[in-house]
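Lay summary. Proteins are chains of building blocks that fold into shapes, and those shapes determine what they do. In this project we predict the shape from the chain. Here is one chain we studied, written as its sequence of building blocks.
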Amino acid sequence: MSIQVFGLPVSRGVAIGRAVLVASSRVDVPHVFVDPQDIDDEVARLVSARDHVSGEFDALKRDLPADAPAELAALLDVHQMLLQDEALIGAAADWVRQRHYNAEWALSAQLEVLARQFDEMEDAYIRERKADLEQVVERLLRHLAQGDAARAQDPHRNPRDFGGEEPLVLVASDIAPADMLNFKRSVFTGFVTDVGGKTSHTAIVARSMDIPAVVGARQASSLIRQDDYIIVDGDAGLVIVDPSPIVLEEYRFRQRQSELERSRLARLRHTPAVTLDGERVELLANIEMPEDGQAALEAGAVGVGLFRSEFLFMNRGGNLPDEEEQYDAYRRAVEAMKGMPVTIRTVDIGADKPLEGMTSSELRHESVLNPALGLRAIRWSLSEPSMFRRQLRALFRAAHHGPVKILIPMLASQREIRQTLENIAHVQRQLADSGKPFGKVELGAMIEVPAAALTLPIFLRHFDFVSIGTNDLIQYTLAIDRADEAVAHLYDPWHPAVLQLIASTITQARAAGKGVSVCGEMAGDPAFTELLLAMGLRSFSMHPTQVASVKQRVLRADTRRLTGLFDEVMGSDDPEQACADALRASTGGAPAPTRALSIA
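And here is the predicted shape, written in a compact code that computers can read:
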């Protein structure tokens, strides 16, 4: 019998495949696919960990004091029995051999399978042994982490498709940004998580991969079992477990239709983004790694509007990249874009993107209390000037190889602006004195805190351009943690306060002759394209997979007909519906016209 699980739709489309569960654990578990030639070594790691822990249990039992309760010895016997059971290590070794999971992932996957079996036992005493099993696995995981953590979390290891012929769907309580970085070029055709909102990190990466995803599905990871056949409906926010043949065929048909639509949109790649009345619009790409530049070019983007540099800092066990490594990464991104501009944001660590081994104890403390309001982004950079200057030097040196813009995240006050500019001036003097070649850059500020939007003239005096980060601007304007599924339904990009701040920022920046773009999720959502054009926006930055859909809307738009759209939307009790109605009325109830060149 099929089960339906509802969550938030965050990346459109349909995924069908076998469920791969990433179980929650009190021990951080790296998730890495192992190369075929390393399979035997990985199985040996499992066996070695078992033998080591078994020796620990023997030593503990041997050293028990004479007056120790008999229950302690009996408990150690139970743990030893669980440890030696082939249902644990033997089955975990099968995960390594069949799916090429690393040892830690294989153990956590098998723990999930066995824990379900314990939960279904009728005998209460046997059910309670699940806690013993969890303790045994955690001891194994801790030993593996101590012995080989660096190899398991090597950031240069790329996941490969070792999952077999059937497509795989990742199911988890939550997916850490470090794991998402590993999974980005992996085999998964969809994501499902218990927690998260529409602009949570998992949702953003899923959209960048152009694969269906449902987040905030609450009990999905406990209802879905390893290898269950599931459907992920990214349009409806629905997950169907063990679908009937009729339902399965219906969704396979939808998959084929979606693929046809993608191929039609792909024909727009070389068409300039110009509205029907001749307004040229700049469509830029958001990227996470230098290698993503190729996808930006293939999508028809005319530059990079946001390079999220923090991904260079993640999944490294706390070892921050030095100046040379950063310089090399930024240079490769610049060269990949073949003379097109590349906007690189300084590190935005914190909130939903924590960093292992932070150097500031305050950052770790704040991340627990309220990560969204803690020591993140420019606040962390200013608190770690040596790290910040190291990154700035690398950025200026990369600018020697092509047009680079530096974007500063989460600025909120003139004091932060002054400190940032002082660090930049210091770095320029250092580079000049060292004789290392460096280039000129344009300097920009992200407008993602209401305080920045409301004091924009101060920012326009000091920066060459501004970029509106709608994800955080919405979060901070509406006092909503965008990663918390409990309040995710309150996250509203159509809120009049949000729209007013965006429109005001665009108007003021254009009046001052300064560049202005939107690089948040709203830029890549076709539902907002005409409204942003009506506000005067002419520069959009989005994930490469979203460029074609937005370009289609731009090609069909006539900005002369959009005059008054913003006022009409702001005057309505339902801005989203008012926008849709106004656009429908402007085209006589039919789809907007398009050029003959756009889509055949």
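What the prediction tells us: The chain has three domains: 33-152, 168-263, 269-586.
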